[in-house]
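Re: duplicated header lines in exported structure tokens

Our pipeline writes sequence and tokens for each protein into one text file. With two proteins the header for the second block appears twice in some exports. Here is an export where it did not happen, for reference. First protein block:
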Amino acid sequence: MDEPKDTGEDSGQGGATPLPFRAAVDALRSARLRPQIEVEPTRPPKRLAPFAYALEAAVVDGDQDLADGRLVLLYDPAGHDAWRGTFRLVTLVRAELEPEMAADPLLPDVCWSWLTGALAARGLTYGEPSGTVTRASSHYFGGLAERPSASQIEIRASWTPREGLGGVPDAAAHLVSWCDLLAQVAGLPPAGPGDASVVTLPQRRGPQSR
């Protein structure tokens, strides 16, 4: 017998799902995204909030994954002091870099500005943003010495989306903005003519196993 597919949703309470959370999840599921970005639900984290929904995504070009990430929607009907709201979005974005790009001392600041810029470009308002930008380099020795050195950028962030009618944020727009960030980190060209001035990372040098 086939196991049921993980929907990425966790009620956390075993009862009825609140309408605001259900509406936000429905919006995430119906969002229209760039064809190069593959998105699917995944198991959400436990104990971060009474209700959670999670998506994982990859920016795909042929047999290459240019970037990947995870977006989690959290909901606490009682509100959360640190969030200053009832919803919270949490993300992880990763991509490999060319060595010269990884050595740029301004890279962390630029990557953080890509996140805030992606939200601003969609006209989204939000509060309490926080996060980290980490870059790491791997060098291979011994039996792995033939492998070229590799560098990776990782963005971890969270923010509180502004709630609209019925206490529901524009979850679909936040997802589209997050996918804009993924595409930018992956080095894809801008999706629209108005974004022609956006600077993106160079694409990866070779395929990455998924």
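Second protein block, exported in the same file:
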Amino acid sequence: MTVELQFLGAARYVTGTKHLVRVGKRKILFDCGMVQGPRKMSNKANRELPEELLDADVVVLSHAHIDHSGSLPRLVKLGFQGKIYCTKATKDLAEVLLYDSAHIQAQDAKYLRKRHHTDFFPPYDEDDVRETVRQMRGKNYNEPFEILPGIEVEFFDAGHILGSAMVVLRVDDGKRKKSIAFTGDHGRKALPVLRAPAKLPPVDVLLTESTYGDRLHEPAPDLEKRLGEIVNQEMEDGGRILIPAFSVGRTQNVVYFLGNLIAEGAIPKLPIFVDSPLSTKATRILASYPELFDDETRAILASGRRPFLFDGVRYTASVEESKSLNDVRSGIIISASGMCESGRIVHHLKQTIGRKQDCLLAVGYMAQGTLGRRLVDGVDTVKLFGEEFRVNCQVRSMRGLSAHADYQELLDNLRHLIDCTERVFVVHGEEEPALKMAERLRGIGFRKVDVPVHRQKFEL
């Protein structure tokens, strides 16, 4: 029985993950994420899904982040009627993330129609999300289940965000089982709240992410201390700190650290605003899965302290509450989206970007072409809502807060697969990090390592 892999997204690029596995005449899709980046490019990519996906039999979703899940409703809108398998926590998170995505796209489409007098409509709407959620099936970690005759899947904790999974696909061709593992977004053992990533079992083929394939994070024990130093430095001139953060995972980690710093007296008791209805919903879902927390977080809960809802942190919901933050001139505002491409963060950035005493603090990865990446790279001017602004605020970065493993963390957690794994494919990384990651994998003994390009096929 022929087994073939085709890479239809996140090949030498970070967002828009779509990896198609063909087993004979059956098609299994690993993730169906939205492409994020310049509007013209991303709009085209997110509307015109590769035709190979349209007759997929089943989707296996690694986690809820939009660059992995966000095109599922588009796939459903175009006729996909199969099941979408994921962990139970991913199903809960994906539901709120996809509804939020549909809302944002509706707003963007309305703006484009008004500004450019076009007939632009979003790639999907809330009805498509509702049908997508109906097709989802939530499963537990470490419990194999059949998705098609002779084909089973097992989820292993990836430690990236709540519910994130490394996927192992096992194909029984009548002689033996061939196994393909996909890391999805691989997490980090040193970050707070969630458990450390699990170890994958022996597999024949491995697909690994490479977001940080060319760099190391700051030492994890220093992250909380470093955040405290930045807060104290930026508070000296009376400005405010604006933190763009993904609503799921990153926001909760930042709030967790700030709560610890305040409890320890390392930073003053500042007003902290989490300006995202989605973050509020995500935090509520996170709190409902304490069995997936690490020991330290469970100990904080047992002590009676609330790591995400302590005194001084305020979760805003309404548009009116969000607009009122325009008048906040000190403290910390955490808002989405994480790459500054859309959402409330852009409105807050408009208020902050020209103020020398304010600070934009990037706490995660910024993909090429995004507004966040241009700011971190040090551009002098940016366009916000069609208007050009000079960048006068401080732009600082804390890469160590990323929920993606760096290359050493990846190597450490994959090294045990060297003797059993026949082929490795490096995905979900820009070209240079992906190529560097491939070199490192070969350097520790993996025999055959490829860095696929978009639409490339491989027979296994």
